[in-house]
Amino acid sequence: MSKKRTLDGFFQASAPKRSRVEIIDRQRLAADFKVLVSNHSTYPYPVPRFPSYITNALSEVPAVDGKEIKDQPDLDLVYFQPYLPKNIERDLFEFLRQELFFYRVQYQIKRGSTETQINTPRYTTVFGVDESSIFSADGALVDAQTSKSVPPDRYRTCKPRPIPTCLDELRKITEVFTSSTYNFCLVNYYATGSDSISYHSDDERFLGPNPSIASFSLGAKRDFLMKHKPIPPSTKEQAHASAPEKSLKLSLASGDMILMRGTTQANWLHSIPKRKGGESDRGRINITFRKALVKGGTENYYQYNVGKGGVWRWNDEKGEMMPWEPDSSLKLEQ
Fold first, then answer.
1. Residues 236, 233: Cα–Cα separation, whole Å
2. Which pLDDT score is estimated for 109?
3. Does residue 224 contact residue 272 with C-beta atoms inside 8 Å?
4. CA distances for 147 relative to 38, 134, 151, 184, angstroms
């Protein structure tokens, strides 16, 4: 049996397709999907589930087979162009931009005696918890081994929250095709070409050796740059005698997915650079699934993707992210 068929159990029966306007019309969402929401005490407001036509279309992923990219030292990628079906990728982008809550995180870094405030150049949000804990059916955070409530001092700097059903559907099907498991979902929104992320690698110890990270693109096409980390002189000649290192540029389009696995994070850096012109100002959403093994991963992800700032939400009338207030949003019934 193909993997695609094994996805049937995740989804409900097909329903007639709805227009893009419908999924961003909150009044219609309240009427048609009023019980189909995810909510938790840590959410500023409920997050609707996907409309049934999107859920049904997700059973057809991947839209095309992935292409392996392993032609450079220590590089192990699988590139899907696209992974998500073209008939839903735009609706997915607009749905998530409208319905998720985001943050514009500020934090301090210290170099010697100097402290510098960093303003994250994009909107971020995060869901999930590391392997030491799980969420029970009623949303309570419990120990993964004992199923008892976690000690109050386990997470001193954050309040973990479960992945909402809409993103969890995508997580489940991603696990099938990557042969990996994930307990975290990070979402970045790049509002314009000025929003970016500098060169970095996801090589934190809390991810374990050779982590698998599945990265989805929705919305505007943006360049994804990769380069090999500097190689110590003592090993450089031996490592690259027959394979000189090269940089890599992928123009990630809406619906694409790139899977980074193996020794990639330990040896390669990646970035989304600033860009001017083209479609870069139309907004881009990046979703990554990953697996944190210990509580340090949970605290790290919430510190740098939620922080202590206020909530931002897309305002369709103004066409931009705006600070969110509790009375500024339609309350969906639960």
1. 5
2. 76
3. yes
4. 22, 8, 12, 20
